[in-house]
């Protein structure tokens, strides 16, 4: 029950009380002083009127009823000539250019204040800027959304990515079916291309280098290969934090050898133990599988033999560590017994092995060379395998149930799946000979495969984090949410503090208005950079954003949407004066001598009179 | 005397005309010299030379005109007028010193001269010389005027676009780059309107530049290297350089703009020729029976040209087992077709190569391109013509074995055949002839025995030769030379070399190498064969082939055994496992088994310099980063895909550190030189406390 309803109920109860009192008075009053019929009727009628007026004073109704004209608001993308009806006023906001016969105003709030008599808004063009969306209060809004623009209409840049890893860019293109999308690295070499289908969905990938910020470029081309749009894709590679993995294997073999080599090269400080039978093992520093040591480990990679050989205590320690946030990857290297499962992830299947063909990332040899880079002394580019020589691998023919897929082959067969367990995750992988990728010159694919698999389960970072809405544009407010105070340095080196809005509560969000494009840096414990697009970038995407925001304002609906935004209260003083008059009239009528002692209505009129002080 | 004045007047016209003639003669020479100066140097030089020439001409003319003095005048008058009776000298003599007679004569002469005007005294020179000289001068002048510039084949200069021309600041206004490729490339020289070019390696580059206004000096500054000063010739500035490596440079004028744009010369390196085998289709050809010749055809391609004559190396390797002989010779092959793509085809007559036995004939073509001074020589693929051995081809296990002994054993069979033929001969020959033929067979048997004796380490002797006992025609072996005659004098013994004592004072008759060739079983069998051969030989020498035959057969059987036994099986190279400790085997003792450490697998560290600089370039203040990057680039330019582009980007940022676009371009260029690190862990989003509580609450 809202306040208004409570007040209405109290008032209604008071009215009923007043009526009862009046009637009781009338009955008890002596006949001489009994009220005449018309006076009683007036007293009875004025009670609810006073109640109504009091309610209206407290909760004045919206003033919509008195609105007369319509404001036609030309926004970005409005045509030059806008048809207006009689009594309509044409207002052009700053984003609209060249609208004929329009009054130019800086924002919608100004327009509404200048024209208080307007009762409705008609939005022409692509929609209202975020700035103007709160100024439509109390007005009926009509919006005729235009078709989605041609070009880039959605872009999801990658989040923080490990040095050397592969990242994915997803986007959507409007009206470009039959065209193509390509991703260019900072050296302007194509690293990925993709034809655009009817849905316009685009998923491209590239590889990064060392830590730092960089800009890739997304290009959209139409069916005739003409450039339609070009957008920067910001990529941030944070300095790699220290990580620790533990690798356990039930037997030595090339797979664990190259796994160890990958972990060493990637700076993961692997602790390896390989059992060689008879209680003997090979290890550099034998890992202790206790709760305290596992709390410092980010991920444990072991094979099914090692898992079975851990014993119940070891498995319990690992399960507890996974619940505490650690990642666990179990390699299936042999046929699994019936009912075999690891922390809720089960695998069942035959004793066979099945071939695995991994999908190729690079669309061409040049793109592959650009993704691989110039090579190192250990792995020079000259000995790298050609694009079409990725060897066929094998996997244990098992189906992993109970998890979400992490790794698929070219036919969509799930090679690895993961499942959450407490704060951590566990993954099963059925790939058996990924080392063949290294020995055939595709070490990059091997490292990428294991990097993505282990990243999917590894421990989450513990420190504070800053959430920044993307994409951000120069000259447009953005929100930075994070713990503690937030200070931002812009590309010109100017620093500034963003004040946290206490109303956002635990999220701790602050508004920030970037005024220059480029990489900004949030400093503090959760330091991170973010990219601000130039004010005129990604026009199609912003038009779609405006359209969606305006449609939300109007409410869901079809092509033409009409709605009334939650009514704002009108002025309460007229109702108060009315209530004062009615209350005064009531008071006067109750006290006045006119209309008394008339036609007896009740028997005991005298009694009332005797009690009446007047 | 009234005659004084006319006499002076008589000489003046001659002087004047002499000077006029001389000046007329000298003028064309002076003009030509001045024109040369103007053309080769500049107009001021031409003007100066004209002035000097004119002064010189006038001086010379005046000198020459002095010849027309009194003496000349007297002689001329005397020569011109006979009526002065050789007495005109009297006219110029002092009258006071004259004798009366002379005075009288003088008066007469005066009167005669006065009476009749003196004729033209000056000998008119020939016009021909003058006209010819003027004609030649005109031709030379036109040649000087029309002769093309030294670098003038490129025509006019192209306008340059290097910054905005401002008054008083020298700016490059016109340019031409002449590229003269090396002669061997066969490319014509070309003039470019730009200062950027891709040129063949070794090309001569000639810049012709023009500035407005002319600077005091100008140079061609190669980035991170030397400067080449520009030479001024006329209104243009020139420089010459040989393109031996790719370079970045800028044209710097003294007092001009501080950072003119960079230009780039890319050098296209001469590629070595490529050889492709056209026919036969495969590199290993089995020889067909009765084949007498072998046709080969190669195609050689090169970017500029292949030399017309290539050499074909023919290697004949024939024989079996260890007894393979090589012979090698080289024949020249002349190619057909254009110089960039030549076909070298030849037909080898097999009879001329000496390729008669089973074996291989290997042919290999070597071509050279036209590069100077050091042509690329490329050896093509080996093509093999194989004459298969008479028996079945070796395969499988057979291929792993080596025959230690050549197949010489047919001769024992021949001895038996000869002996049986002799016995079967009908009618039986005369006894002495029979004995002679039997002895001949005995000689064969002896040769064979000696030959096998060598394998046993026996001394070759007793009339045996080193000739192979395959040919039965070797009758009458040569007498053995002195065994010790040909031995080189032995070196003086050294302390500690006991074996040298034998060599010094004794004489070994066994060949140690041959003696150890066979295993003991084979040696025994061979010994038996030799014994039987000796028995056979003895019987044959006594003229009794019938008694010799059983020994001969036995010998043959033993030799066959030896032949089948003497195969050496070569072990494959493989893992060397530690020996099994048999004392501990199967005892269950695991006392000293322990965990072992794994070997380190750390990769070569990746050079972090470019990555660090790349990250540092993101910020605005990094003066040291560029220097470090330039140093790194100098040391690692082989690993960078396009070092020149990176150098140019570094230079641009260094000159304008505030240019954000230049910085982005440098980072982009450096990106392609950054090695990709091995990907580690990408951290998942951290999540907030609410999410953690939710996860903890899940079962």
Structure notes:
The complex is a heterodimer of chains A (614) and B (699). Chain A has 614 residues and is of the alpha/beta class. Chain A is built from 13 helices and 32 strands. Chain A is elongated and about 120 Å long. By secondary structure, chain B is of the alpha+beta class. Chain B contains 19 helices and 21 strands. Chain B has helices at residues 4-40, 43-65, 70-80, 89-92, 100-115, 127-146, 350-353, 397-400, 410-424, 431-455, 499-505, 512-515, 520-541, 545-565, 609-616, 623-636, 643-655, 660-671, 689-697, and strands at 158-159, 171-180, 190-192, 197-200, 203-212, 218-222, 227-229, 231-233, 236-243, 247-253, 263-268, 274-279, 284-286, 293-301, 309-320, 323-334, 341-349, 359-368, 377-387, 401-403, 567-569. In chain B, the strands form 5 sheets. In chain B, strands 1, 2, 3, 5, 8 and 9 form a 6-stranded antiparallel β-sheet that branches. In chain B, strands 4-11-10-6-7 form a 5-stranded mixed β-sheet, with helices on one face. Chain B has a 5-stranded mixed β-sheet with strand order 13-19-18-15-16, with no helix packed on it. In chain B, helix 9 (410-424) runs antiparallel to helix 14 (545-565), helix 15 (609-616) runs antiparallel to helix 16 and helix 17 (643-655) packs antiparallel against helix 18 (660-671). The interface between A and B is large, with 79 and 50 residues.
């Amino acid at each position: 029950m809202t306040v208004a309803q409570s007040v209405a109920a109290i008032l209604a109860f008071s009215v009923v009380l007043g009526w009862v009192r009046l009637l009781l008075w009338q009955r008890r009053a002596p006949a001489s002083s009994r009220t005449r019929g018309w006076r009683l009727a007036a007293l009875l009628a004025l009670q609810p009127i006073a109640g109504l007026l009091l309610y209206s004073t407290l909760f004045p109704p919206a003033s919509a009823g008195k609105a007369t004209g319509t404001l036609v608001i030309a926004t970005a993308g409005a045509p030059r000539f806008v048809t207006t009806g009689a009594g309509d006023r044409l207002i052009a906001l700053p984003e609209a250019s060249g609208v004929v016969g329009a009054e130019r105003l800086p924002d919608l709030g100004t327009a509404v204040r200048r024209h208080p008599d307007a009762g409705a808004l008609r939005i022409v063009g692509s929609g209202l800027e975020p700035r103007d969306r709160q100024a439509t209060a109390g007005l009926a809004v009509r919006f005729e959304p235009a078709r989605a623009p041609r070009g880039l209409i959605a872009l999801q840049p990658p989040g923080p990515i490990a040095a050397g890893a592969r990242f994915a860019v997803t986007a959507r293109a409007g009206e470009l079916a039959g065209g193509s999308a390509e991703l260019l690295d900072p050296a302007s070499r194509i690293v990925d291309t993709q034809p655009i289908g009817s849905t316009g969905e685009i998923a491209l990938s590239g590889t990064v280098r060392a830590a730092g910020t960089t800009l890739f470029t997304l290009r959209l081309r139409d069916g005739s290969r003409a450039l339609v749009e070009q957008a920067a894709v910001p990529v941030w590679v944070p300095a790699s934090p220290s990580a620790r993995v533990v690798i356990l294997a039930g037997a030595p073999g090339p797979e664990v050898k190259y796994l160890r080599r990958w972990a060493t090269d990637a700076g993961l400080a692997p602790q390896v133990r390989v059992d060689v039978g008879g209680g003997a093992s090979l290890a550099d520093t034998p890992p202790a599988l206790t709760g305290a040591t596992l709390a410092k480990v980010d991920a444990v990679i072991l094979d099914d033999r090692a898992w079975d050989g851990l014993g119940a205590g070891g498995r319990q320690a690992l399960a507890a560590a996974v619940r505490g946030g650690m990642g666990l990857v179990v390699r299936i290297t042999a046929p699994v017994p019936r009912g075999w499962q690891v922390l809720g992830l089960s695998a069942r299947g035959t004793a066979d092995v099945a071939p695995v063909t991994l999908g190729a990332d690079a669309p061409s040899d040049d793109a592959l060379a650009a993704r691989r880079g110039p090579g190192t002394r250990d792995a020079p580019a000259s000995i790298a395998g050609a694009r079409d020589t990725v060897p066929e691998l094998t996997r244990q023919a098992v189906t992993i149930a109970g998890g979400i897929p992490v790794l698929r082959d070219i036919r969509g067969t799930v090679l690895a799946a993961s499942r959450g367990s407490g704060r951590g995750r566990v993954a099963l992988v059925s790939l058996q000979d990924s080392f063949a990728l290294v020995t055939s010159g595709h070490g990059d694919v091997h490292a990428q495969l294991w990097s993505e698999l282990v990243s999917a389960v590894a421990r989450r970072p513990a420190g504070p984090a800053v959430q920044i809405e993307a994409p951000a544009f120069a000259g447009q407010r953005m929100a930075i949410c994070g713990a503690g105070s937030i200070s931002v340095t812009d590309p010109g080196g100017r620093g500034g503090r963003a004040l946290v809005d206490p109303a956002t509560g635990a999220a701790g969000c602050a508004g920030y208005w970037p005024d220059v494009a480029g990489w900004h840096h949030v400093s503090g414990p959760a330091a991170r950079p973010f990219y601000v697009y130039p004010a005129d970038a990604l026009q199609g995407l912003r038009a779609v954003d405006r359209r969606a925001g305006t449609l939300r304002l109007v409410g869901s609906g079809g092509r033409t949407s009409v709605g009334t935004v939650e009514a704002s209260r009108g002025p309460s003083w007229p109702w108060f004066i009315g209530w004062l008059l009615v209350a005064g009239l009531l008071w006067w009528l109750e006290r006045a001598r006119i209309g008394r002692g008339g036609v007896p209505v009740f028997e005991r009129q005298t009694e009332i009179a005797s009690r009446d002080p007047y | 005397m009234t005659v004084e004045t006319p006499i002076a007047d008589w000489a003046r016209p001659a002087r004047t005309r002499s000077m006029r003639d001389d000046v007329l003669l000298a003028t064309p020479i002076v003009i030509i010299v001045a024109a040369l100066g103007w053309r080769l140097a500049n107009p001021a030089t031409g003007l100066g030379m004209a002035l000097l020439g004119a002064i010189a001409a006038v001086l010379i003319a005046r000198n020459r005109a002095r010849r027309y003095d009194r003496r000349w005048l007297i002689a001329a008058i005397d020569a011109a007028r006979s009526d002065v009776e050789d007495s005109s000298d009297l006219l110029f003599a002092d009258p006071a010193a004259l004798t009366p007679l002379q005075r009288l004569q003088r008066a007469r002469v005066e009167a005669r001269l006065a009476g009749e005007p003196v004729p033209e005294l000056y000998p008119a020179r020939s016009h021909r010389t003058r006209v010819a000289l003027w004609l030649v001068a005109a031709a030379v002048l036109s040649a000087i005027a029309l002769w093309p510039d030294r670098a003038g084949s490129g025509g006019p200069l192209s306008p340059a676009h290097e910054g905005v021309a401002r008054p008083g600041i020298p700016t490059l206004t016109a340019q031409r780059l002449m590229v003269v490729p090396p002669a061997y490339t066969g490319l014509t020289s070309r003039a470019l309107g730009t200062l950027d070019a891709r040129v063949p390696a070794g090309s001569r580059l000639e810049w012709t530049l023009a500035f407005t206004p002319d600077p005091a000096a100008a140079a061609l500054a190669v980035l991170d290297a030397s400067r080449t000063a520009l030479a001024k010739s006329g209104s243009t500035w020139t420089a010459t350089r040989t393109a031996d490596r790719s370079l970045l440079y800028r044209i710097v004028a003294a007092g001009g703009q501080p950072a003119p744009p960079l230009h780039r010369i890319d050098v296209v390196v001469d590629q070595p020729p490529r050889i492709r085998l056209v026919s036969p289709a495969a590199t290993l050809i089995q020889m067909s029976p009765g084949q007498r010749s072998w046709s080969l055809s190669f195609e050689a391609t090169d970017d500029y040209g292949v030399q017309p004559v290539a050499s074909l190396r023919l290697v004949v390797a024939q024989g079996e087992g260890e007894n393979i002989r090589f012979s090698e010779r080289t024949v020249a092959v002349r190619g057909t077709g254009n110089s960039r793509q030549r076909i070298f085809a030849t037909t080898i007559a097999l009879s001329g190569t000496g390729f008669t036995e089973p074996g291989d004939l290997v042919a290999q073509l070597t071509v050279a391109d036209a590069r100077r001074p050091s042509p690329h020589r490329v050896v093509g693929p080996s093509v093999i013509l194989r004459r298969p051995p008479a028996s079945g081809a070796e395969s499988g296990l057979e291929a792993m074995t080596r025959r230690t002994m050549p197949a010489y054993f047919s001769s024992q069979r021949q001895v038996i055949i000869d002996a049986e033929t002799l016995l079967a001969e009908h009618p039986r020959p005369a006894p002495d002839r029979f004995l002679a033929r039997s002895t001949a067979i005995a000689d064969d048997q002896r040769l064979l025995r000696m030959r096998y004796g060598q394998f046993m380490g026996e001394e070759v002797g007793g009339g045996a030769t080193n000739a192979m006992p395959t040919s039965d025609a070797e009758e009458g072996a040569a007498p053995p030379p002195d065994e010790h005659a040909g031995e080189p004098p032995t070196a003086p013994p050294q302390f500690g070399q006991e074996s040298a004592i034998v060599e010094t004072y004794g004489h070994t008759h066994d060949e140690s190498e041959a003696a150890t060739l066979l295993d003991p079983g084979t040696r025994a069998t061979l010994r038996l064969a030799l014994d039987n051969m000796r028995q056979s030989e003895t019987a044959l020498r006594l003229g009794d082939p019938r008694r010799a035959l059983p020994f001969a057969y036995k010998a043959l059987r033993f030799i066959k055994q030896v032949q089948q036994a003497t195969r050496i099986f070569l072990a494959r190279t493989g893992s060397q496992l530690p020996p099994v400790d048999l004392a501990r085997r199967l005892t269950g003792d695991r006392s000293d088994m322990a965990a072992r450490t794994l070997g380190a697998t750390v990769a070569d560290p990746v050079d972090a310099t470019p990555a660090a600089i790349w990250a540092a370039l993101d910020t605005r203040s990094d003066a040291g980063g560029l220097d470090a990057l330039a140093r790194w680039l100098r040391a690692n330019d082989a690993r960078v895909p396009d070092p020149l582009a990176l150098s140019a980007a570094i230079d641009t940022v260094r000159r304008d550190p505030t240019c954000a676009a230049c910085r982005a371009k440098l980072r982009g260029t450096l990106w392609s030189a950054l090695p990709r690190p091995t990907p580690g862990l990408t951290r998942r989003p951290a999540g907030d406390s609410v999410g953690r509580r939710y996860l903890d609450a899940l079962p």
